[in-house]
Design brief:
Elements lengths: L8 E12 L4 E3 L2 E3 L2 E11 L4 E6 L9 H16 L7 H11 L4 H19 L3 H4 L8 E2 L1 E4 L4 H14 L3 E5 L5 H14 L4 E5 L6 H12 L6 E2 L7 H10 L4 E3 L6 H10 L4 E4 L1 H4 L2 H13 L3 E4 L6 H12 L12 H4 L12 E2 L2 E2 L13 H7 L10
Parallel strand pairs: 7-8, 8-9, 9-10, 10-11, 11-12, 12-13
Antiparallel strand pairs: 1-4, 2-3, 4-5, 6-15, 14-15
This protein binds magnesium ion (MG).
Magnesium ion (MG) binds next to loops.
């Protein structure tokens, strides 16, 4: 049968999945070990076409998987079932009003609607977002293992794979550990571009003392040294720092970006779907940054290849995001991804697929394999 944008959405399934990981990641605000928990949303039209989306929450950053699950399963479901992707904008607006925060759940819904719209029309999501032919996006992989020997082995693998950027996670142990690792990376891997991310790990006093020394290693940028709400220290650091200062946890959506520009807290911003609550809002953040002369980076949370795909399409359609991306978890962190094909990384670059929708398939068998709640059927 032929499909149209008016086809009703009659299936709405939500799964809470826990995916085993191969290493430990330590950050200034907390650690991830054992498993990554994500929420997978599947929309199904009356014609049997699916659209998938992912919420990738982190309890210490954006929120909990339980909150994302409840937002999608209980509060957003009634706004979607029985309607069509032709009502995409209305559905999103109502979802935004139906529950505060829960930006990861809103990102999952927006992603699934975009995926579905693309599959119904035969167009890739990057084209729906106004993009031209995607260019390869440089991939950054985070160095965040408390066992630095394990990260040395990872860096050898990254070098072999053609990955040219590493982001050192700092501020989770002590300054000497950070200096030692940065010095090691600079001496042994001169081919790598290096970024630094504190994930809010320092208080004001430590930041004013330690961050300028770290800037002496000439990283591409230094990200979020202090608490999300400590805009004063961000602004003070930015005035004197010999490296660009990036805001991550301080800036979620366009509303934050507007105020952050006015307050002068950063030279750039990490744009994340899980913070903005959707693709269009993420484009807004990147464009606002560019309009103010700031740079933008394609950040992510602890995600599967499904959320990575949404991010890849976003960047493909948003040239303002020019600092590359960090969609490394599907290949370098998860024991097994949820896609039926490897997340598209080649020679250290991510390329958004050209197929309809997100352009790659979510493997339902794997979703069921890792689901901790079982399927929650939502046909009205
Ligand atoms: Mg960050």
């Amino acid at each position: 049968m032929s499909h149209t944008l008016e086809d009703r959405i009659i299936g709405y399934d939500v799964w809470h999945c826990a995916l085993p990981v191969v290493s430990r990641r330590d950050h200034g605000i907390g650690s991830v070990a054992g498993a990554v928990e994500v929420i997978i949303l599947r929309l199904t039209t009356e014609g049997g076409v699916h659209g998938f989306g992912e919420a990738s929450p982190w309890t210490v950053f954006t929120g909990s998987p339980e909150a994302s699950f409840a937002a999608l399963h209980r509060y957003m479901r009634p706004l979607v079932v029985g309607r069509s992707v032709a009502e995409h904008a209305d559905i999103l607006a109502q979802a935004s009003k139906s529950i505060v925060h829960c930006s990861e759940a809103k990102a999952a819904l927006d992603t699934a609607l975009h995926d579905l719209k693309g599959r119904l029309t035969g167009r890739p999501v990057w084209a729906l977002l106004g993009g031209q032919t995607p260019r390869p996006t440089p991939l950054s992989c985070s160095i965040a293992d408390p066992d630095f020997d394990a990260d040395k082995a990872l860096m050898e693998r990254l070098k072999d794979d053609g990955v040219g950027i590493v982001k050192l996670k700092t501020g989770f142990r002590d300054h000497d550990f950070d200096v030692m690792r940065l010095d090691y990376v600079r001496r042994h891997y001169p081919e790598f571009s290096v970024r630094v991310d504190y994930n809010q790990g320092l208080d004001r006093g430590a930041a004013l003392k330690q961050v300028p020394e770290i800037a002496g290693f000439a990283p591409d940028f230094i990200e979020q040294p202090v608490a999300a709400g400590d805009w004063q220290t961000m602004a003070d650091l930015r005035k004197t720092l010999a490296a660009p200062l990036l805001a991550d946890e301080s800036v979620f959506g366009p509303e934050d970006m507007d105020r952050a520009i006015a307050a002068g807290i950063c030279d750039g911003v990490s744009v994340k779907l899980m913070k903005t609550g959707g693709l269009t809002r993420a484009q807004q953040v990147a464009r606002m940054a560019a309009g103010a002369g700031l740079s933008a980076y394609g950040g992510d949370m602890f995600e599967t290849g499904l959320a990575h795909l949404a991010g890849a399409h976003l960047i493909a359609a948003t040239p303002e995001i020019a600092l590359g991306c960090e969609f490394y978890q599907a290949k370098y962190f998860l024991a097994e991804d949820l896609l039926t094909s490897p997340f598209p990384v080649s020679d250290g670059h991510v390329i958004a697929p050209n197929g309809p929708g997100l352009g790659a398939e979510c493997d339902l068998d794997k979703v069921l394999k890792y689901a901790v709640n079982g399927p929650v059927k939502g046909v009205r």
